[in-house]
Design brief:
The complex is a heterotetramer of chains A (573), B (313), C (300) and D (537). With 300 residues, chain C is an all-alpha fold. Chain C is built from 11 helices and no strands. Helices cover 31% and strands 18% of the residues of chain D. In chain D, strand 15 (377-382), helix 14 (390-401) and strand 16 form a beta-alpha-beta unit. Classes of the chains: A alpha/beta (573), B mainly alpha (313), C mainly alpha (300), D alpha+beta (537). Chain C: One of its GO terms (cellular component) is plasma membrane.
Chain lengths: 573, 313, 300, 537
């Protein structure tokens, strides 16, 4: 049954054995316990020397499990390999002894992980963490090891290497940490590098730099890369070949070009269709002149000096001027730490801004007391990033939705009736009202959160990274829903996102933030189509797969075909 | 860091004032009359009153408190009402046994409990894990005086390996010292071993699920290095915390152990002083133990920074 | 914290955060054998305590000085103590006292600690004052405090209970406070703020339930340690009076006969250890089942 | 013993192994480390804390007094006063006593003992001791008449001057340097210079841990053989160390293992352990023993009524109380004499009610007649003093059987001694009943028996009987000329005291001591002393 996916032929099998750096055939992984559940169901794939293979799929598709199985790192008490073969450079790793497996790691196969924040040991210095790889696998002397460490850190283009060596992970930026991870993985020049979502947690500009680095080193060392990602944009940028996974099986595989242009399976097509393109939405005519939200000189400074604390404090947002009209969507985009969420939380008065004004329907709310704020609260509502956490897991869906209306004096019965119809509005069955959030998927939970926000009939909806935690297919649906609701209810939407492509899909106007300030603001088409600021351009350039029009299975008009070479010649940032 | 320590010390001043005031009031409101202890069974009420006046116990509470705290500020802890010995001399005499007991017991605890906890976490849900947990839960479930009696019966009386009771100063040689301190320290350590082994296991279980442990394994490091270099150091903070809060547990353990093994330490001094209503001694001792408790926990907070470079004060 | 929450988990590839926030849902199947045995033993002890008057052959305080320190016999399954009282009956009634002390301490500590912790977690000014007082209370060695309190009010069951409970309160307050401090950052609490819920409502509906799981775990430890502390207080002569038999004072009165009549200390000791063992095992089970992160949370 | 098996089941194997290993390393096996030659290590009945033998009547402080001080007179085993530091002459009218100090008496600091020192010490003693207070009311003057002689002049006849000066317990006449004796009697002394057979080593004193006494090389003993506190105090050891062991179990183990040479009071129930040890001797050193008694509060109902006090006496009985307290016929004795049995004044006058107890039915009847309204009796129980803890528990049961309502209140001894001083009603912290113990020499005459004082709220001992008749009888006793007369008056006093239920003696007991067989020649007397005794190498 998995045989039909083994049709890909290695593109560049060099002469001489082994033909493949990695071969996985018919791998079956199950959960442990009395009623085993299949996590991987006959997965087969191979990676040729020097090749970059992308394993793409949504959450829960089993792509990470495949890589962990290869490294012999499956959580022993939870998962077990039922059958199948995994060979690295011809050696069977499934039947290898623990000792042999340890020897293979870092020398033949290496892995880098998604969260560079947590994947490095926080209490050991960078040098120590690199050194112990050499210590475990080579007989090199101290001097040799020190030199090797500095060489590899140079290779991954880290600045100020001596300081780096002494540093601890928390003292580095996310990108630097991921470079350290790469250095650690490659210090013994293994033939296989498995990269499990290595750039997902990074900002786009950093992501771009890391992708370039991987490609560059791969070329120099001839490493084979198995790259696991959910992001079709990334796939389009780096892959030689692609495996699409779903529910523990390989759905489709093939060279990058054919997958993107001629996907054979419905799932692949759907996946590609829901990838947001960087092309701005067509401009909408303004429906109302009524200003729902206006901020001026809004400023938020953390940690102002006190008796025990000297210094200036951290400026999270400064002089933010925004105007949002009824029925319109204003996007705030920026990388992590740019202050976009601070602005959202100030607007919601979850934070008390340290300066400036916030006017909600022409009423000043920036400095009113909590009590005086209460009547205004129902006029603005928020959708949070993580639907797993923004719904109280102990309350039923209904209880969560009617909490607000009851606070404002609606009687419980009519509030419940309203909740039912709201649930239907957001595309859920009315009987969902008595269930608990954990019985729903992430996308459904976000719909519930939207229903809750709408229950108070707000004029302003603030969505803080509201689709970032969702799979692309779900993401597209939620964006559609928001758009639809806006059209029907005329609510104004303040949309916070780090993802330019998402912003392009939904926003009428976009404000680009950097280091707490707005660097550029204007209609989406203008800002994204013809950026005035270098920073905006930089962001746009870094967006993965920006040359490809995924939903239409073709390159974007006017853009040239993406290629790996194209990525590689870009200078590192 | 220095500023942090300074700030913490400043912050502990109100704590100590709360302690001092609380103890003072509690004691003075407690029925009991040191004069009666001094005078014995035959004294008449008039004689008692005379002795009380002599000790200044007839003064209003506030006056007594002001006098006492005034003396404290000059470093004068007063003298025992009963034996007229300066309180500091009394404490000085009893410090070594208690410190020895606490330190030896702590060393035993660390030697035994940390490997136990690490092992249990590493072999999570195995027989070893269950065994380690059973031992430590058992250690937690037997009153310390029973543990003490059993140890005495088995090791001192039946096997004649150790003396039954008492304390020998370390100045009389390390051998005799260890020989006397071994059983009481072991009795005292049982609860602590249980506590720390459990905490170590729990903290290690947490840490072993972290990404960097997976990274360490992916680097092909041996399990020993993964466990002790990577996991244990990261698990140190909660373990240290429990060592700090468990210190309070140790104090109550010390009181009992000192009685059972007749170790002439501070614990016994405190109980004697409470039973005799020897106010200056009780006040000084509780202030001292509270001070030590606060200091130990400050020390532990500071040591976090050495265990975990992310923590900066 | 340089990282902003908005990047904590981006992208659909992020692993779903598994949160076990729900009320204790320990499935029957989830319990290990040890937990089963523990639950059974505890149930037995509770039944013993409940039906002590029916089960005991003698009045636990009726003495017969002529028949003191009797060995095991059919009439006295556990022998008699120094007053000639039936140790079996005393042990049964002792279960009552010890359980009252244990459960009482846990309950009272939670009842007082929960509101204080909730308030402390929410109001900074109150927090500063309350925490200094709690620090002070915590710094005073519990056993010494207990001795002093028992000396102050006399040694009845209730004063011993109070004396044992007071030192436990700061721990509960700190626990609740720490849970509140972390839970109030949860988006669903912010969501409740944005829908205009009042502070008491937020505390009660959204924050308090978070404390249930850790409190259950903490309560088992308070319970176990209260029973032990009662025994230690008895040992030090500051325990419950002999007319209210407790395992602690039976053992304490019998400890001098340790070598001659081990049964005096063995039986109550056995019940005490089994009970505490059972409570501890259940507490551990509850912790493993409820909150794997509890151990990581610093106490302060 | 089965404990080994049980214990190793309790503890993991590795623990055992570690322990064995550690002990081998330590070269263990010598359970008893070699003691310093000629040192006697003793566990006394309690720890010594108060070092002033005049300010307190605590027995341990008295014992301490006998170590480092000499007494003016001694008392021999026939209860006869004998010269110790001084000899005496009595004038024909019996009103003037002349004392002459013997030669060779030197304080530890080298100064000779003078008559002035003796006079100052006696005066301080006279302010504290109950009997002495009574005597001093009859003293006209007490003055030194020379370096070695002093004179005591009575204003009226007082029959027991020598008995008081020689009494071995309560407050004996310890002689201190005048500078020390000038300390007010309500203030503890801080200078522990004496002239006794041992020197107190202040540097090694740790209250609650140990007290160390070294041989006084300068001490010149009398030539007579020792007999109680009379005769020569010849010290045969270099040092005596009193070790405090709060846990009786630990002390018994320590004696058993040879770490301790002498344990003054052994718990009866542990005697089998000690008796089975061939290296130990268990014997009663104090031939007179102890009296245990109940005191009722005359101020508070229901014991303000003599009928109800009598009912309580009928309800109690010596047998059950002694059984709970001692439980060993060898060491307990029913005794109806308030002056102790086997003493010169011993009598059973008026003791029928308590000697025939417990009589619950009789007591019930008496209660009914007295119209007892069920007022609860607050009976105080000290939980931390093993020798007084059981009596109230048994009494509570006996009283309840007789129809009393009893509120048995456990507390520590300190709370008890404070509370018993309260004359307030029960609702305001007062009390109805408590128990305590005396050694016989403390109660053996109407003069020094603290209970036999009818001074009421001001003058009497706790319980405050207001009984002028009793005080009158005591005065007669003090003035009595002959032994016969004294005996008669004492019997009358006792009969009267029983009639009004001044207090209720509930039996006598003796406490065995445990001695290492290395010790020989330990004196049998009411006070444990460490002269005469020898210790084998």
């Amino acid at each position: 049954m998995a045989g039909d996916t083994r049709n890909g032929t290695p593109q560049a099998a060099p002469d001489g054995a082994p033909a493949h750096t990695l071969v996985i055939s018919d791998l079956v992984v199950e959960t442990r316990g009395r009623e085993p559940r299949r996590i991987l169901d006959g997965v087969s794939l191979h990676v040729a020397p020097g090749e970059t293979v992308c394993l793409v799929g949504e959450s829960g598709s089993g792509k990470s499990v495949s890589s962990l199985a290869t490294m012999g790192l499956l959580p022993k008490d939870a998962l077990t390999v039922r059958s199948g073969v995994i060979e690295v450079e011809g050696e069977d790793v499934l039947s290898a002894s623990p000792k042999r497996l340890r020897q293979l790691r870092a020398t033949r196969m290496s892995m880098i992980f998604q969260e560079p924040m947590t994947a490095l040991n926080p209490v050991l210095s960078i040098e120590k963490q690199l050194d112990e790889v050499l210590d475990a696998h080579s007989a090199a002397t101290g001097t040799e090891r020190r030199k090797r460490i500095r060489d590899i850190l140079e290779l991954v283009r880290l600045p100020d290497i001596e300081r780096m060596c002494r540093s601890f992970p928390h003292q580095l930026s996310g990108g630097q940490r991921q470079r350290v991870m790469i250095a650690m993985a490659l210090i013994l020049e293994p033939k296989l590098l498995i990269a499990d979502e290595p750039t997902t947690a990074l900002d786009v500009t950093t992501q771009k730099a890391i992708l370039e680095l991987v490609a560059d080193i791969q070329k120099r060392l001839g490493t084979s890369v198995l790259f696991i990602t959910h992001d079709m944009g990334v796939v389009a940028d780096i892959a030689d070949r692609v495996y699409v996974m779903r529910h523990g099986r390989i759905v489709e595989d093939g060279p990058i070009g054919s997958i993107l242009r001629e996907p054979k399976k419905d799932y692949t097509r759907d996946l590609l269709a829901s990838v947001p393109a960087l092309s701005p939405r067509p401009a909408r005519p303004a429906t109302s002149a009524e200003i729902v939200l206006q901020t001026s000189q809004l400023t938020m400074v953390y940690g102002r000096p006190s008796f025990f604390r000297k210094g200036e404090g951290t400026v999270a947002a400064k002089d933010i001027d925004l105007v949002l009209k009824r029925g319109r969507t204003l996007g705030i985009v920026g990388e992590s730490g740019s202050g976009k969420s601070t602005v959202a939380r100030c607007v919601m008065r979850l934070l008390d801004p340290t300066g400036g004004s916030i006017r909600l329907r022409n009423r000043e709310i920036a400095d009113v007391s909590r009590r005086a704020l209460r009547p205004h609260r129902k006029r603005m509502q928020m959708i949070f990033q993580d639907p797993n956490r923004s719904l109280n897991p102990r309350l039923t869906v209904g209880e969560s939705i009617i909490e607000g209306p009851i606070n404002y004096g609606v009687d419980p019965d009519s509030a419940r009736n309203k909740a039912r119809s709201l649930l239907e509005t957001v595309g859920l069955p009315a009987d969902a009202i008595d269930r608990h959030p954990h019985q729903f998927s992430g996308g459904q939970r976000q719909r519930i959160a939207i229903a809750r926000a709408l229950a108070l009939e707000p004029d302003l909806l603030v969505a803080d990274e509201a689709v970032s935690a969702l799979d692309v297919s779900v993401q597209a649906q939620v964006l559609d829903l928001l758009d639809d609701l806006q059209a029907r209810l005329g609510v104004a939407l303040l949309f916070i996102t780090h993802d330019l492509r998402v912003a392009a899909q939904i926003c009428d106007e976009v404000a680009v933030m950097q280091k707490g300030r707005i660097v550029e603001c204007g209609p989406t088409g203008e800002v994204l189509g013809n950026p005035a600021e270098a920073y905006t351009r930089q962001l746009i350039d870094a967006a993965p797969g920006r040359f490809w029009d995924f939903p239409n299975f073709r390159p974007l008009a006017g853009a040239h075909e993406p290629s790996r070479q194209d990525v590689m010649v870009e200078p590192a940032r | 860091m220095l500023a942090y320590i300074l700030r913490r010390i400043l912050a502990s001043i109100p704590v100590m004032i709360v302690v001092a005031l609380f103890i003072f009031l509690l004691l003075r409101l407690t029925p009991g009359d040191p004069a009666a202890i001094i005078a014995g069974d035959m004294a008449t009420p008039a004689q008692l009153a005379e002795i009380r006046r002599n000790l200044g116990l007839d003064q209003p509470l506030l006056t007594q408190f002001v006098t006492w705290s005034g003396q404290l500020l000059t470093g004068d802890f007063g003298q025992s009402l009963i034996s007229r010995t300066p309180v500091l001399t009394l404490i000085g005499q009893r410090l070594e046994p208690t410190l020895s007991l606490a330190i030896v017991s702590m060393i035993m605890t660390l030697i035994l409990s940390i490997p136990m906890g690490v092992l249990a976490a590493w072999r999570h849900r195995s027989l070893t894990d269950s065994a380690v947990m059973a031992i430590s839960v058992l250690g937690f479930s037997i009153p310390i005086f029973v543990t003490g009696y059993i140890l005495i019966q088995v090791f001192a009386i039946d096997l004649k390996l150790f003396p039954v009771q008492g304390f020998t100063s370390i100045s009389e040689g390390i051998g005799p010292f260890l020989q006397r301190i071994f059983l009481p320290a072991l009795a005292l350590a049982t609860i602590y071993i249980a506590l720390i082994a459990r905490m170590t296991r729990a903290a290690m279980l947490n840490v072993l699920g972290e990404d960097y442990i997976r990274t360490a394994r992916a680097k092909g490091l041996s399990e020993r290095i993964v466990l002790f270099r990577h996991a244990l150091r990261n698990a140190a903070v909660p373990i240290l915390t429990v060592i700090g809060t468990g210190f309070a547990l140790m104090i109550s353990g010390v009181v009992v152990t000192e009685s059972v093994f007749n170790v002439p330490g501070l614990g016994r001094l405190t109980v004697d002083a409470i039973l005799a209503r020897d106010y200056p001694v009780i006040q000084a001792l509780i202030l001292l133990t509270s001070g030590i408790y606060v200091a130990v926990n400050l020390l532990i907070d500071v040591s976090y920074a050495f265990m975990d470079p992310r923590i900066r004060y | 914290m340089a990282e902003h929450p908005s990047t904590a988990a981006t992208g659909p590839g992020a692993k779903p955060v598994v949160r076990r926030n729900f009320l204790p849902r320990i499935g029957v199947r989830g319990l290990g054998l040890a937990a089963w045995i523990a639950a059974f033993a505890l149930a037995l002890v509770v039944l013993m305590a409940l039906f002590a008057p029916l089960l005991s052959p003698y009045d636990p305080i009726a003495m017969n000085p002529m028949e003191r320190l009797a060995d095991w016999s059919l009439a006295h399954p556990f022998g008699t103590d120094a007053y000639g009282r039936d140790v079996f009956s005393r042990t049964l009634y002792g279960a009552r006292t010890s359980l009252i002390v244990g459960l009482g301490a846990a309950l009272v500590a939670v009842l007082i600690g929960l509101p204080l912790g909730l308030l402390s977690g929410f109001f900074r000014t109150l927090d500063a004052i309350l925490m200094r007082i709690m620090d002070g209370l915590m710094a005073i060695p519990a056993i010494l405090l207990a001795i002093a309190i028992v000396a102050l009010v006399g040694s009845s069951l209730w004063t011993v209970l109070v004396a044992i409970t007071i030192p436990e309160i700061p721990r509960v307050v700190r626990l609740v406070r720490s849970v509140v401090l972390s839970a109030r950052e949860e988006p669903y609490v912010e969501a409740a703020i944005t829908v205009g819920s009042s502070l008491p409502k937020i505390m009660w509906k959204h924050l308090a339930p978070n404390t249930v799981a850790p409190l259950i775990v903490q309560a088992t430890y308070v319970c176990a340690s209260a029973i032990l502390t009662e025994a230690i207080l008895s040992f030090l002569g500051a325990g419950i009076g002999t007319e209210t038999p407790s395992w602690g004072n039976i053992m304490s009165e019998g400890r001098i006969y340790f070598q001659l009549k081990p049964s005096l200390i063995f039986w109550p000791g056995l019940f005490l250890s089994i009970t505490i063992l059972a409570i501890n095992i259940l507490g551990d089970t509850a912790r493993d089942a409820l909150d794997p992160k509890l151990g990581k949370r610093r106490q302060d | 013993m089965s404990f080994i098996a049980k214990a190793s089941a309790f503890h993991p194997r590795h623990l055992l192994r570690a322990t064995l290993l550690a002990s081998t390393l330590l070269g263990a096996g010598l359970a008893a480390s070699p003691l310093q030659a000629q040192e006697i290590r003793a566990v006394m009945h309690s720890g010594i804390r108060v070092l002033d033998p005049v300010i307190t009547t605590a027995h341990i402080t008295r014992n301490h007094g006998y170590m480092i001080y000499d007494t003016l007179l001694g008392m021999d085993e026939n209860l006869e006063p004998q010269p110790q530091m001084a000899d005496w002459q009595v004038s024909d009218d019996g009103l003037t006593y002349t004392f002459t100090l013997r030669d060779g008496l030197v304080f530890h600091d080298g100064a000779p003992v003078t008559a002035a020192d003796a006079v100052a010490s006696l005066k301080r003693w006279g302010e504290r001791d109950g009997g002495a207070q009574m005597m001093f009311r009859s003293i006209e003057s007490l003055e030194a008449t020379g370096d070695k002689t002093f004179e005591l002049k009575l204003s009226e006849p007082f029959s027991t001057v020598l008995q008081l000066l020689a009494k071995p317990s309560g407050l004996p006449t310890f002689i201190m340097p005048a500078r020390v004796a000038e300390t007010p009697s309500s203030e503890s002394i801080t200078d522990y210079t004496g002239s006794g057979p041992f020197v107190f080593d202040e540097s090694q004193f740790e209250p609650g841990v140990r007290a160390v006494y070294t041989k006084n090389e300068a001490y010149v003993p009398r030539d007579e053989p020792p007999s109680w506190t009379a005769g020569g105090k010849v010290v045969n050891v270099d040092q005596v160390t009193w070790v405090v062991m709060p846990d009786a179990m630990t002390a018994v183990n320590a004696v058993g293992s040879g770490e301790i040479d002498f344990m003054e009071q052994t718990p009866y129930d542990l005697l089998p352990l000690l008796e089975a040890n061939p290296e130990l001797t268990v014997e009663v050193l104090s031939p007179l023993g102890y009296q245990t008694m109940a005191r009722l509060n005359w101020l508070n109902p229901p014991f303000d009524k003599v009928e109800i006090r009598r009912a309580a006496m009928a309800a109690l009985g010596q047998d059950p109380i002694l059984a709970a307290l001692v439980g060993n016929p060898q060491y307990q004795e029913k005794c109806g004499s308030m002056y102790g049995c086997g003493t010169p004044l011993a009598t059973d006058a008026g003791s029928e009610l308590i000697m025939n107890g417990p009589q619950p039915e009789e007591a019930k009847r008496m209660l009914e007649e007295a119209g007892y309204d069920g007022t609860p009796i607050v009976l105080m129980q000290p939980t931390d003093v093993p020798s007084i803890a059981p009596q109230p528990v048994v009494a509570a049961q006996l009283l309840r059987q007789a129809g009393f309502t009893v509120d048995l209140q456990p507390m520590d001894w300190q709370t008890l001694v404070t509370r018993r001083a309260s004359q307030a009603p029960v609702s305001e912290g007062g009390w109805n009943m408590f128990f305590t113990n005396w050694i016989i020499p403390e109660v053996w005459s109407p003069i020094n028996n603290p209970m036999l004082n009818g001074g009421g709220k001001e003058g009497a001992w706790f319980g405050w009987p207001d009984d002028p008749k009793l005080d009158e009888m005591r005065a007669n006793f003090a003035a009595a000329e002959s032994e016969e007369e004294r005996k008669t008056i004492a019997a009358d006093i006792q009969a009267h005291a029983y009639e009004v239920v001044n207090y209720i003696p509930v039996g006598e007991y003796k406490i065995p001591s445990a001695l290492s067989n290395k010790l020989t020649g330990m004196l049998e007397m009411p006070v444990p002393v460490f002269w005469a005794v020898e210790k084998a190498e």
